[in-house]
Amino acid sequence: xxxxxxxxxxxxxxxxxxxxxxxxxxxxxxxxxxxxxxxxxxxxxxxxxxxxxxxxxxxxxxxxxxxxxxxxxxxxxxxxxxxxxxxxxxxxxxxxxxxxxxxxxxxxxxxxxxxxxxxxxxxxxxxxxxxxxxxxxxxxxxxxxxxxxxxxxxxxxxx
Length: 159
Hints:
Elements: H1 8-13, H2 15-24, H3 29-38, H4 40-61, E1 64-68, E2 72-78, E3 82-90, H5 100-108, E4 115-123, H6 128-137, E5 141-143, H7 146-158
Antiparallel strand pairs: 1-2, 1-5, 2-3, 3-4
Helix pairs in contact: 3-4, 4-6
């Protein structure tokens, strides 16, 4: 597998798409039950292939990713050839960005000396979608880029 198998919940949510995928393999519902019972390794292989197809489709469409920790927000703009990153770091000890109060504090104090904003970009070390998948597996999540845009505007205004 290139990525990882979808979870049971993800398969349940994509059951119609999975049925269509099986149909492209000339496998109907009756045959699928037989395969699951008599050839579980073939069933697993079909599920692996479908999972990779879904992941590839999702990752190809990703434009922005975000990753939060207690004192750092990593914002990624995932372009085709490069990934741009904005790091927002809070150095004040009692602020936790994972909590509502800490997040609100950040926006009230964004120009404070206790907030560092850094930017950078790099080419992908591996294939683009694989790098994005790795970021998601490490706790990143897909976003619409509103936070990235906000901080990009702040950086641009400061330049």
